[in-house]
Amino acid sequence: MGRNQKSADSFAGLPISSVENQRETLLTWYANACRDLPWRGSTDPYPIWISEIMLQQTQVKTVIPYYHRWLAEFPTIETLATADLQQVLLVWQGLGYYSRARNLHKAAQQIIQDYGGIFPDQLSDVLALPGIGRTTAGGILSAAFNQPVPILDGNVKRILARLVALSVPPAKATKKLWQLSESLLDPEHPGTFNQALMDLGATICTPKNPDCCHCPWQSHCQAYNLGIASKLPMREASTPLPHKIIGVAVIWNNQEQILIDRRPAQGLLGGLWEFPGGKIEPDETVADCIKREIREELGIEIEVGDRVITVDHAYSHFRVTLIVHHCRHLSGVPQALECDEIRWVTLEEIDQFPFPKANTQIIGALRQETERM
């Protein structure tokens, strides 16, 4: 009896013989139901790595066009490593969680420096690359090198929580869920098995209204047998997201250029360009906020004009409302006091710079105004 089977038996309360059956039924289901995704069927670790990073926090249908565009622009690790970070961010623009793009760039440079441009095949080396955690490493190593390394993304956590009718939120049972994922993993076909798990979570064992009638693990699933599949996994008590209201300036000069600034490389939206502004303080008007922020950030005086647009946007840990106004540069030479770089650009040139998603809505509103004039 293997260690893996003991682990599955002791935690999941499943008969030892069921582990082999679960592997077989899942792989049989996957052979007939797998999704045709562009990164599948290849054992090249580079495109697999790109897909794994893009799929963090992002749905497959959103990722696919970005994946194709990325590989067209950066077909190899070397082309990514030698690319300018601004171009990397521009290709990534709109996909969100921009630290992923920055980490891909850093990791590619590290692979060139430490591994001669060849993606490493040892777990410790892969985990040492920026932006790669245990699940991403498992996805890459199992798919590219057929190594028996488990995964535990959101889909897999949900499947396993239902499989054993987990009585606590997954975050409180992470170690046990990793043990179960490792125990169930098919040692002969780990890459296919991990892909099958992800597809099962994406298409059958979904967060809401799981399609238990078509699930290959229905007979093994304790949550289904107890009639509580749709109630699991248990969720942590959530708190309301903090809400920030931001005054934003679209500053024009006499040459009909707009002033944009580049955020510091580290931190939220690092390295991206934006329209300057800042948080509205209590008892402060939008206009007063914008004037103050521009004075503090750029060292210039402006006149605040008409509103352009109001944009609501949610990040993972907070949400923002951007109240955007046209402004006119009055005096002073702009200085990069709280950013890495500033530029005057025309509306026609602005697509050359990577912007956060909320700012692209501002650009769209400016273009609509121009078309109406």
UniProtKB/TrEMBL annotation:
Task: Determine if Hydrolase is one of this entry's keywords.
Answer: yes
What's an example of a GO molecular-function annotation for this chain?
8-oxo-7,8-dihydroguanine DNA N-glycosylase activity
Protein name from the UniProt record: Adenine DNA glycosylase
Q: Which residues form the Nudix hydrolase domain?
A: 241-370
**Organism classification, top ranks?**
Bacteria, Bacillati, Cyanobacteriota, Cyanophyceae, Coleofasciculales
So where does Mg(2+) get bound? G277, E297
Q: Which UniProt keywords apply?
A: 4Fe-4S, DNA damage, DNA repair, Glycosidase, Hydrolase, Iron, Iron-sulfur, Magnesium, Metal-binding
Function description: Adenine glycosylase active on G-A mispairs. MutY also corrects error-prone DNA synthesis past GO lesions which are due to the oxidatively damaged form of guanine: 7,8-dihydro-8-oxoguanine (8-oxo-dGTP).
Q: What PANTHER family does the entry give? A: ADENINE DNA GLYCOSYLASE
Q: Which cofactor does it need?
A: [4Fe-4S] cluster; Mg(2+)
Name the source organism: Coleofasciculus chthonoplastes PCC 7420
Q: Which GO terms describe its biological process?
A: base-excision repair; mismatch repair
Q: Provide the catalytic activity annotation.
A: Hydrolyzes free adenine bases from 7,8-dihydro-8-oxoguanine:adenine mismatched double-stranded DNA, leaving an apurinic site
Identify the EC number(s): 3.2.2.31
